[in-house]
Amino acid sequence: MKKNIPFDISASEGNGSKKKLLLHSCCAPCSSSVIEMLAQYFELTVLYYNPNIFPESEFNKRRDEQERFCREFLKDTKICFAGTDYRSEEFEKTAKGTENAPEGGERCTRCFALRLEESAKYAKENRFDFFTTTLSVSPLKDSDRLNTIGTALGKKYGVEYLVSNFKKQNGYKRSVELSKEFGMYRQDFCGCKYSLAERIMQAKAFIFDADGTLFDTMSFYENFAPNTVRAMGGEPKPELREQIRSMTVEDACRFFKKEYNLPHPVEEIQKTVSELVTKLYCEIATLKPGVFEFLQEAKKRGIKMCIATASPKEPVIQGVERLGIDDCFEFVVNCAELNTTKKESKIYEEAAKMLGADKKDAVVFEDAHHAIVTAKKGGFKVVAVREDTEKKYADIIYENSDIFVDSMLHLVQRENL
Length: 417
Ligand code: SF4
What we know:
CATH class of the largest domain: Alpha Beta
Bound molecules: iron/sulfur cluster
CATH architecture of the largest domain: 3-Layer(aba) Sandwich
Strand order of the largest sheet: 8-7-6-9-10-11
Number of domains: 3
């Protein structure tokens, strides 16, 4: 490679017409400066094959952005685009056994090889003169490793790999400039769910919901509304659970009184409920699987944590103490004291502020779909924790969370992520 040229320029020299090059691309922002440079020397086709990207919506977003960029970037030069559908099982198979490897380790070597092998095959089948990848533009990607893998695959498939290091000549800096100029979408993690989990574990603050996220208490809350109305002499309607879903316990008691015309004063209803709730946290509630271990790991990493709940504060504090996790949290805050509900993001914003963290450095953990939607719309990264009572809202949860976990521990022990 000539000094200061990020690829072997002699490869492009021919009999006057440009040679055909297949450029594997991970995303539009990374491809921008590479396309700008290579299009001067080659007839380019961009291949978007990235089964590592998680989740599918992120894969689609990056693919659409790549296609748009190929179409709109250079007015006088045609850049062809070729994309595949989402084939995440190919990445999962490749990554098996390396889920816990750090970014830059063995999993990434396999991930590079997977994507470059598909590119080599495509280049051979479609009679390209060369193939290469945008990956070396990233300061986090080792160009020597990419060149070694690409060259070996080029030999295997009988198509030449263009040795390159697109970081050179300020390639990365230029890609950032072009991304801004074209208003491009750029994520803050490499792409796979393991890199996303690592990004989450680098947050400064964690904000946890209590019921259904830390505590296994949702079956109580599923039945508490009809049980309370019945105990007070009313006949609960089928839609009752849904009607009180995002209410605080205090507001729910007022609602029972009004909606069912209960003879008891609100204070009495609240007292009955309060006794039940106190018993729940002081005697019955257990932690969901993996919560204790996950909190210890987060504490070890110095992540500041709190609980932001719609449930009554004192009983939750008692539950946290009884279950031996009180030393993990800076504080518990609830909706009632902030005069809000989880239909607005105020509680998460206040919690982040009290933890001394910027919104972009805080992660919200929730199980309920309405709260997940609120936190996401509020600009937080959201981890959705599996809760059976939310099963019917699975689509909304997938769409509005960054990652969905069966157990929080899977963010650290990633084999089952
Ligand atoms: S961190 Fe990036 S390069 Fe490494 S396996 Fe994940 S997506 Fe692939």
